């Protein structure tokens, strides 16, 4: 499979240790690449997801130098199935934005948290190896689908016998998509009843048009799951720049909760719509939808930003 070839390309300088049937540690000889940093030396948050994805490739697949074991025996599942991302939760430590810390080498520690009928949750901690400092943590819910029908299927009995015992029901990842604010004026024109008790929103909904580029796609030609967070941040930044407001541009991402609803594809035109609630001004909600006569929801995200008093970007030296 193509993902195996990618894992082979990444495997040089990687030490893979299976700590238990439900835990694996990947010691990397490298850190973030040059293009992972923005002009203020901040790691772009979607590159954390890309790092987590590289850990999936290195742990779920056979490697050239070690052909006897994979994390969660996923290589056996890959014979007739695929694992598609259903949702993700990203938590970023303030340490990631500390430019006095050189972000290399890195260690990825992966742990199985939850097993459902056809889904599993795996948490990945991204750790700065020399100091043992956690830079970020990412939980990912993956859904097992049949390779031919592309529909969810239950895990095989042999797999459940091996790994079902490590499931903690309370650790199931649930990302609930918020509804977009109601366009009050449009609703009134159509005769809809508008409640005066609806939750107050800040500045309504802003929409930005984008196109899925080739560099945003995965080995199957679909939009890579890390790209959706990039679309959200880029949309927010571009509008802030056009409005000559750098307030949001100075904010560092603290958490991101993302739900993946449908697949995007190369060349697809999309709308990225976002809004804020007055009660939670540090959070921005995003909907990524297909640009068509009948819109299709592709992804939802809720991104929380650090307050400027918590993580100041004014101390960063511009490159």
From TrEMBL:
InterPro entries: HotDog_dom_sf (IPR029069). Gene3D superfamilies: Hotdog Thioesterase. It comes from the Eukaryota. This is Uncharacterized protein. The lineage of its organism: Eukaryota, Metazoa, Spiralia, Lophotrochozoa, Mollusca.
């Amino acid at each position: 499979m193509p993902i195996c070839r990618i894992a082979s390309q990444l495997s040089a300088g990687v030490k893979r240790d299976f700590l238990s049937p439900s835990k694996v540690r990947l010691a990397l000889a490298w850190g973030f690449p040059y293009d992972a940093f923005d002009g203020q030396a901040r790691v772009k948050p979607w590159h954390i997801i890309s790092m987590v994805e590289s850990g999936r490739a290195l742990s779920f697949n056979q490697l050239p130098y070690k052909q006897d074991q994979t994390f969660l025996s996923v290589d056996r599942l890959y014979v007739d199935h695929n694992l598609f991302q259903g949702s993700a939760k990203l938590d970023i430590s303030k340490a990631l934005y500390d430019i006095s810390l050189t972000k290399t080498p890195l260690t990825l520690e992966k742990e199985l948290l939850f097993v459902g009928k056809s889904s599993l949750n795996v948490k990945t901690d991204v750790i700065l190896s020399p100091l043992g400092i956690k830079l970020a943590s990412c939980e990912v819910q993956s859904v097992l689908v049949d390779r031919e029908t592309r529909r969810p299927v239950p895990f095989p009995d042999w797999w459940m016998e091996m790994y079902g015992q490590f499931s903690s029901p309370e650790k199931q990842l649930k990302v609930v998509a918020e509804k977009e604010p109601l366009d009050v004026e449009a609703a009134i024109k159509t005769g809809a009843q508008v409640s005066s008790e609806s939750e107050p929103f800040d500045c309504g909904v802003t929409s930005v048009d984008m196109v899925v580029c080739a560099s945003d796609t995965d080995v199957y030609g679909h939009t890579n799951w890390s790209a959706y967070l990039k679309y959200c941040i880029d949309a927010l930044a571009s509008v802030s720049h056009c409005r000559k407001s750098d307030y949001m541009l100075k904010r560092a991402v603290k958490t991101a909760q993302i739900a993946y609803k449908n697949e995007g594809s190369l060349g697809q035109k999309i709308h990225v719509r976002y809004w804020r609630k007055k009660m939670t001004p540090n959070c921005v909600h995003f909907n990524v939808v297909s640009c068509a006569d009948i819109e299709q929801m592709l992804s939802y995200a809720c991104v929380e930003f650090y307050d400027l008093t918590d993580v100041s970007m004014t101390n960063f030296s511009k490159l």
